[in-house]
Design brief:
The protein is of the alpha/beta class and 309 residues long. It contains 10 helices and 16 strands. The model has no long low-confidence stretch (mean pLDDT 95).
């Protein structure tokens, strides 16, 4: 039996996305590398890897290691820097057919502001910014913002004053109380929050007694962190009114539905793209079938996880 295509579109801030399945920062390059392998126009949105003011080589290797049900990375925000991003990447986005969300990282308030102002000063197809205040892999990273409520609020409102594009603050799970950081982002004027970035992890080779990661600690991602992501999304859902984009360990449509039941309006798929760059398109096809079969709307599912009495 064939169903009509379900309406998977969602609204975040003033932007309407065709569907709620985005690719996560750092796992899909600048957004154009996979276009021979995937019909990127099918994706809800592409979130770029983090862009900083100056180019960065990132951390020395080894900076990736597989772990049970996941991987640890310590890439250290390797990227071409905002000026080259503007000259080389922005023109490519014209006509890509997918909303591009630029992820920005910085080590100071001024750095975040400078990157955003440079993009705002040119015309581009970028629909919004995701602000990485949660990278665990750099010495002086945005992480200091993501663990502090007043810094989160000041940074959010400083950026809010400078853009009308979508503003999404990306939260860290490596905090005591993620709800209070989310509340600060909302108070600062964010349109949405995304959660979660990677979880601090470590991997040791017992045969050599060496760390498997140059920087000793890295960020754990993949199915291993899905329960943490779900819990963070559900906690945040009870404390803010702006949309939540759920991230962490998504590999199939069931995972997407679970994040929506926990409170997410959209999701991002990260590590799973390395195994199969076409995974999001498969997830979307099955999401369409799921919505039709159960005769539900995505909006009605948000946060509707059933609790025990
Ligand atoms: C190799 C790698 C690089 C990443 N780089 C970034 C980055 O540049 N900026 C960022 O905000 N998040 C980055 N992330 C975090 C992901 O966007 C995502 O939040 C995290 O991996 C959890 O989702 P997943 O379990 O689906 O991978 C990176 C993750 C991986 C695995």
């Amino acid at each position: 039996m064939r169903f009509a295509l379900a309406d998977l579109s969602i609204q975040i801030g003033h932007i309407r996305f065709n569907n709620p399945v985005f690719v996560a920062s750092g796992t899909f390059g600048y957004g154009t590398e996979n276009k021979e392998l995937v019909d990127v126009s099918k994706l809800g949105a592409i979130v770029t890897k983090s862009i900083t003011l100056n180019p960065r080589e990132g951390n020395p290797p080894p900076r990736l290691v597989e772990t049970p049900s996941g991987m640890i990375n310590s890439i250290g925000l390797a990227n071409i820097g905002v000026d080259k991003y503007i000259s080389d990447m922005l023109p490519v986005y014209e006509g890509i057919g997918t909303p591009i969300i630029m992820n920005i990282a910085g080590s100071s308030m001024d750095e975040y502001i400078s990157v955003l102002e440079k993009i705002e000063s040119v015309s581009s197809a970028i629909v919004g910014y995701e602000i990485n205040i949660s990278c665990p892999n750099v010495k002086e990273g945005g992480m200091q913002f993501g663990i502090d409520c007043s810094m989160t609020e000041s940074l959010t409102s400083a950026l809010r004053k400078r853009t009308e594009k979508l503003l999404i603050m990306k939260l860290s799970p490596n905090v005591t109380d993620i709800s209070s950081i989310a509340t600060s982002a909302e108070n600062g004027g964010a349109d949405a929050v995304s959660a979660i970035n990677t979880v601090v992890g470590m991997s040791i080779d017992h045969k050599t007694a060496k760390s498997n990661i140059y920087t000793t600690f890295g960020g754990l991602s993949g199915p291993a962190i899905k329960p943490i992501g779900l819990a963070c999304v559900h906690k945040v859902f009870h404390s803010i009114t702006i949309p939540i984009i759920g991230i962490g360990g998504i590999v199939n449509t069931g995972d997407v539905v679970e994040y929506i039941l926990a409170g997410a309006k959209a999701v991002q798929v990260g590590t799973a793209n390395f195994r199969d760059p076409g995974i999001c398109v498969k997830i979307l096809n099955n999401l369409d079938l799921y919505i039709n079969k159960h005769n539900i709307t995505l909006n009605n599912l948000i946060g509707s996880v059933k609790q025990y009495d």
